[in-house]
Amino acid sequence: METIRFDIEHIQKFVTKKEMEQQTKAALKARETLLSGQGKGNDFLGWVDLPAKTSAKMMKNLREDVDRLASISQYVVVVGIGGSYLGARAVIDALEYKYLNNTGFPQVLYAGHTLDEDYYAWLLNKINTADYSVVVISKSGTTTEPAVAFRMLKRHLEKKYGKSGAAQRIVAITDKSRGALKTIADQEGYPAYVIPDNVGGRFSVLTPVGLLPIALAGYDISALLRGARNMRKICIEANTIQANPALLYAVVRNALYNKGKKVEMMVNFTPVLRTFSEWWKQLYGESEGKEGKGLLPHSLSFTTDLHSMGQYVQEGERLMFETVMSVKKSNYRASIPNDKQNLDGLNYLLDKNLTEINHCAEQGTVLAHEKGGVPVLRLELPKVNEEILGQMIYMFEFACGVSGYMLDVNPFDQPGVEAYKKNMFALLGKPGYKL
After folding, report:
1. Active-site annotation holds for 286
2. DSSP 8-state code for residue 382
3. What angle do CA 413, 201, 125 make, to 5 degrees?
4. pTM here?
5. Catalytic residue at 421?
6. Annotated catalytic, 328?
């Protein structure tokens, strides 16, 4: 089995052996708290066992709905915000290069993640003359952004296909027994899946929240879950940081945080992983940014951003470290063609493919940034496929729970998210709200 692993060579001069040992003890204690269900937010730990408890019946239902929607849809619009869409989009975008001829499946579009009017004009224009369906994801059904999007799309579907036809093109993923979306789904007869009560949005990618959109895009959710199951076993059973990437990650990031590194930059050299960084940003930002604590998660795409942010990383204030997602194998091969004039001076690369050149850019960057005072943690990925992504998702989730407990915060709530909503409601004149 190919597995992800961390390389800590380029952080060792920034953290002492004693500091690593201290953080290892703290991480092991935090893992015990997590697995015992005795820590803060312990009513939201359903994600821990999700990969092992996904039922064959649910997988069958998902595949049936995928077949049905794919047969009638050129597009599927996934309506959700935050964890209700970021996990699915992270996996779908990451696999974009693997399946260049992924025919027979609808293209996934997104709504409910913005209130920008021009975006919805573009979206409605795009689907106006095409067959499409909607997957709407919301536990309550009243979160402003997805509720606004769904109201517009529902009306558009009903005008286009009629009320009964629209009902055949909408799938709801929502609460088991209550909430506005649950009520609408029951009234209209939409097929529906449950968001478990004990799984928060940013930990929900391995529930139907993520599995249905990923499967609709044509990707193998069984392999995704298999990777997550394999990583779950490692996270729960391996007791050394050398054998347990989730523990090692929690140890390193907290050791560096205690040394004054307040910003973690998630870096890719493979642009399809950019959205995965966005999912990671929400996972850690919303889980740890509390009580005046927590690393600020940031993301960069190299080599692109080396030509915009590279200067700051190399010589700016020394407040950050990097976690580099390093992909060993690409799915395709492209090499540099010969040019007799060689005016661009590239003929020295004729015996190298782009992956080799990209790896050299990565190695050169890591060495330069380490020398410039930026610790670099490397996450080595054998390749980008469903099983590896499943490993990554579970590892980051587990490490997030451990790391949050090491900081002594509740990793599973998000009270600060409500602040902007209250002000927005007051400005819009919603009854009961004042500035």
Report:
1. yes
2. S
3. 135
4. 0.94
5. yes
6. no
